[in-house]
Structure formats: C-alpha cells, structure tokens
C-alpha cells in the first residue's frame, strides 16, 4: 500500500510539473465575452435576408479581426424605449455582456410619445447597463423635418444628453450617410423608412469608430461594489 501511494504521489508531481513548465499547454480559454445589441427593426434586419444587417456585419468584422466578442442581437421590430427598458434586466442577467449597444427611440417618435418618457427610459437603460458593469454605446436617431424644427432638435439632443449624463459612448446619428445621402431613396427599402442591404455597411461604418475604444480599453468606472465584465484583448 505504501509503495502504491508513493507511486501515485510521484505521478501527480510529474503532472503538476508538466503543467507549470514553460511551453506547457495552457488551459482551454473560456467562452468569448458578449456584446448585446438591443434595438428595433433597423437592427433586427427588417426586410433583409438573414445575415445582411449591420449587426451581422459587425460579428463578421469582429471574427475577421480575431476580437473575442460574441454578438447577441436582441433587437425586435417595432420596439420602443419602454419595451427595451422592460426586457433589458433579463437580458443583462442572462448574457452578462461586456458591452451593450442600445438602438432605440425611433418608434417612440413615430408613435408621438412624449420626449420626456423616451429620455427617462434611455436613462434607466443606461443606468442598468452601468449597474451590470458593462460598457454602453448609445445610437442616436433623428426624425424628418416634417415633425417640426423644435421637436426634431429636442429629439436629436436627448441622446447626447443621456450619453453625457451616463458616461456612455455615442453615435450621434446612426443613419448618417444614408438618410442624408445624395440619393437617399437608393439606400432605403420601398417603405422609405428602413435602410436596405446596400446601406448596411454604412451603418456599421458609423458604429465602429465609437465601438472600438470600448473594446480596446475599459469604459467608465463601474458602480462601486460591481465588477466590470471581463473583456479579452483583441487577437493578434
């Protein structure tokens, strides 16, 4: 019995030495961190073939650049800020994302909802993201001039106000280069509301410069008592 025990200890010692010596195989990496996208039809590929939307193109770029982020698209056509605010806590608990992109607000304007409600919902979502220790990128929207100059300006401004108050990154206008293109109708579907497949690379081009800093370095300091979700560095 004593010889058998000694042999087992010897084998265990060899195994530990092998695991710690230079050049030994490293433990298997854990699953990639999650990037959560919470949006409406613009992010939900409305009217597009699956895989053509800007969110799908984002995942392709991350994979091509060996950035270990797995995109989870929780966007729903017709979603309002109130709906996103209701769904967000469960999504944060389930996916524990490192980064959250919120693309909501356009349907609030289309339905004529009070701007104060939209701003309050965006602030609540931004706060929830920070409480979860994640980094937030807010995608701003604008409404057509026929809504009136005062309303249009206040609607566009509320995204910047929320981003500043909550220390979030901001894309001022997701549809820049699309809605204000020389031939905008060529970049929209027949309804004149939803960008077509040709416009999706431009949407990603608007998002990427503001998203990349959140990937490369930590965002705002998390709320005391919370620890930011781990985000592995980009691959080489």
Properties at a glance:
43% helix, Rossmann fold, single chain, 236 residues, 5 strands, alpha/beta, disordered N terminus
Overview of the molecule:
With 236 residues, the chain is of the alpha/beta class. The longest helix has 19 residues, at 2-20. It contains seven helices and five strands, in the order αβαβαβααβαβα. It has a five-stranded parallel beta sheet with strand order 2-1-3-4-5, sandwiched between helices. The protein has one domain (32-216): 3-Layer(aba) Sandwich (Rossmann fold). The protein has helices at 2-20, 54-64, 81-95, 106-110, 115-131, 149-165, 200-216; strands at residues 33-39, 69-73, 99-103, 135-139, 169-171. It starts with a helix and ends in a 20-residue tail after the last helix. Residues 1-28, 219-230 and 232-236 have low confidence and may be disordered.
Shape: globular
Number of strands: 5
Strand content: 5-15%
What is the total domain count?
A: 1
- Series of secondary-structure elements, N-terminal to C-terminal: HEHEHEHHEHEH
Helix content percent band: 40-55%
With strands numbered from the N-terminus, the spatial order across the biggest sheet is 2-1-3-4-5
End-to-end CA span: 51 Å
Provide the residue-averaged pLDDT.
85
Largest sheet descriptor = 5 strands, parallel
The level-1 CATH class? Alpha Beta
At CATH level 3, the topology is: Rossmann fold
Instruction: Quickly count the helices.
Output: 7
| Unreliable residue runs | 1-28, 219-230, 232-236
Category by helix and strand content: alpha/beta
What is the CATH H-level superfamily? SGNH hydrolase
Rg (CA only): 23 Å
